[in-house]
Amino acid sequence: MKMKGGGMPIVDASVFFGGNFDDASIVANAGWKGLPEFPELVKEIERISRLPNVDSVSVSVLEWPEVDDVEEFDLWPQGENLVIVSSMSREALEHEISLLKHDGVLDGWAYEKDGRSAETLPHVPAGSRLYTVCWD
């Protein structure tokens, strides 16, 4: 798997999960938490993205398969966390997405303070905020 040296790509959740066959492509390190099975997890993320007070749901991609590595043909890019733009308060969002068994919802881009930029953060309309949903 290749790790990006610069900013982390941020991909719309519908693009990331469209055709996704790899149930370890997101929250792979949190299987012990009793998360829903992958198809149910995707349905829950889709439900969240349709909420009237949610502007967008994206996935930050940490690693992706090498294009020319045959051993990695059955891997999907590895999502690190969700990026949600919403007019909800952080507390309301935490409650709304509780089925995801997250470890926290942070205000803003989670890696801003440690210098890991995002290639492109989603647009944040007036009255909304950007949140990062984290696991471990």
Produce a short descriptive summary.
The chain has 136 residues and is α+β, with helices and mostly antiparallel strands. 18% of the residues lie in helices and 26% in strands. The longest helix has 13 residues, at 38-50.
Structural account:
With 136 residues, this protein is α+β, with helices and mostly antiparallel strands. It has 3 helices and 6 strands. It is globular, with a radius of gyration of 15 Å. Residues 1-5 have low confidence and may be disordered.
Shape: globular
Q: What is the arithmetic mean of pLDDT?
A: 82
Contiguous low-pLDDT stretches (5 residues minimum) are: 1-5
- Topology as a string of helices (H) and strands (E): EEHHEEHEE
Measured distance between first and last alpha carbons: 21 Å
Tally of helical segments = 3
Oligomer: single chain
From the structure above, extract its key features.
disordered N terminus, 18% helix, 3 helices, single chain, alpha+beta, six-stranded antiparallel sheet, 136 residues
